[in-house]
């Protein structure tokens, strides 16, 4: 058991050390004002995305599931000044419009691209165009995580990073009584990545769970 007041979690403790981030706070407020679901990536994982993009020198970023642009901004912030590009795939046109607006207001309008529609179709189109990416963030419909992972591996430059959020599904992943399609897909996804010879993988168990992987490639 944690020897701390019950309302303090490891995540809330570390989050409390950081100053309020005006740009991310504005995005959260815009999501609320539009009555959209408040399910942006957790702040600690947002910081991790920025860090990983910056540390790996990734230039071409792909996110699957844009919502209001919170994770998009976290990803874009890791790019070197004036360089690189973020491509976001989003099913809902009104969400894509807000995310585009928020990214433009944060100064990334010229370097971000929004593709509206079911992500599996958009990924097939990107593959047909021969596009390749250095960094993937998977954060859309959970049933398709196994599909998105296969696309990511095919679209990956050597040593590309794949991050995927919500691998715990608020504990449902661990509960054998839960057998819905999202839970089954996430269990399949978690198990498959753990033994995939094409990947170097780690599962982070904080917040709602994050999968991190590097696609080995040839280099
Ligand atoms: N990554 C966002 C962030 O942290 O700011 C949050 C994304 S939210 C958890 C999931 C998003 O995936 C929603 O905006 C939803 O509309 C989108 N989505 C759901 N199914 C999709 C699909 N089949 N193709 C593309 N986007 C989808």
> What proportion of the residues is helical, as a percent range?
25-40%
Q: How many strand units?
A: 7
Biggest sheet, spatial arrangement of strands: 3-2-1-4-5-7-6
Low-confidence stretches: none
Largest β sheet strand count, sense and barrel closure: 7 strands, mixed
Please state the overall shape, judged from the principal axes of the Cα atoms.
Answer: globular
**Alpha-carbon Rg, integer:** 17 Å
What does this structure look like?
There is one protein chain. This protein has a single domain (10-215), classed as Vaccinia Virus protein VP39 (Rossmann fold, 3-Layer(aba) Sandwich). Helix 3 runs parallel beside helix 4 and helix 6 (119-128) packs parallel to helix 7 (145-154). The longest helix has 14 residues, at 43-56. By secondary structure, it is an alpha/beta fold. It is globular, with a radius of gyration of 17 Å. It has 8 helices and 7 strands, in the order αααβαβαβαβαβαββ. It has a 7-stranded mixed beta sheet, sandwiched between helices. The mean pLDDT is 96. The chain has helices at 10-15, 22-33, 43-56, 70-76, 93-105, 119-128, 145-154, 181-194; strands at residues 60-64, 85-90, 112-116, 133-138, 156-165, 199-204, 210-215. S-adenosylmethionine is lined by residues 39-41, 63, 65-67, 70-71, 89-92, 95, 118-119, 139-141. It comes from Cohnella fermenti. InterPro entries: Cation-dep_OMT, SAM-dependent_MTases_sf, SAM_O-MeTrfase. One of its GO terms (molecular function) is O-methyltransferase activity. Keywords: Methyltransferase, S-adenosyl-L-methionine, Transferase. This is O-methyltransferase.
